[in-house]
Amino acid sequence: MKKIITTSKAPAPIGPYNQAILSGNTLYTSGQIALHPKTGELVLDSIEKETKQVMENMKAVLEAAEMTFENVIKTSIFISDMNNFGEINKVYGSYFNEETAPARETVEVANLPKFVNVEISMIAVK
Hints:
Blueprint: E1 2-5, E2 20-23, E3 26-29, H1 47-64, E4 72-79, H2 85-93, E5 103-108, E6 118-125
Parallel strand pairs: 4-5
Antiparallel strand pairs: 1-2, 2-3, 3-6, 4-6
């Protein structure tokens, strides 16, 4: 059985998907990009600000499922330029305790939705 997780504190889906699905105790999030949930505008001032907005969007989705970053067991990071990895990793890492950080992959891709620089999805468990 699945439960749809939705919050107005993260951007509304821009296609036929939901922000997250809770199946049993496991949360599967859709990828988040740097859309500001209130304005609908992309936050692209810098790669650091873009990544922070992505992580804040993800935080809102986790909170809607009554979870935190401590519940995250796996992340997928998609970036348009591997040269941005260091800056993205620094912001991303500030949301986790290094000793209990989740498993993860980081993949460079040709393009992302709305031609952003970073998209992140997560799996979390209660």
